[in-house]
Amino acid sequence: QVQLVESGGGLVQAGGSLRLSCAASGRTIRPYRMGWFRQAPGREREFVAAISWSGGNTYYADSVKGRFTISRDNAKNTVYLQMNSLKPEDTAVYYCAAATVPFTTYNIANYGSWGQGTQVTVSS
Prior knowledge:
Blueprint: E1 3-7, E2 10-13, E3 18-25, E4 34-39, E5 46-51, E6 58-60, E7 68-73, E8 78-83, E9 92-99, E10 111-112, E11 118-123
Parallel strand pairs: 2-11
Antiparallel strand pairs: 1-3, 3-8, 4-5, 4-9, 5-6, 7-8, 9-10, 9-11
């Protein structure tokens, strides 16, 4: 099973940027579609972005489309989430996960091997 560790979160002002990283160990992530999710206080965990195993296909929630970019480096066993034009409503704990079902995107039930999360706080 792959182990995932997120990093790169922090406190940023509205309009700022952050780059999250998700480092994998235990096995290669190359065969897996990878996803980023987030959970704000009092809310359910929600889909943010996903990327195919090759990086050739990416998928985004409407709320982040045009502002966030997901990417991956299979040689480094790492997935990234570049977040620009951050808004206070982006404040949440961000998690990465490896898909357990081929060709899945937003369905949280189709992901396993969750990381511990990294906190992103956007001040107004």
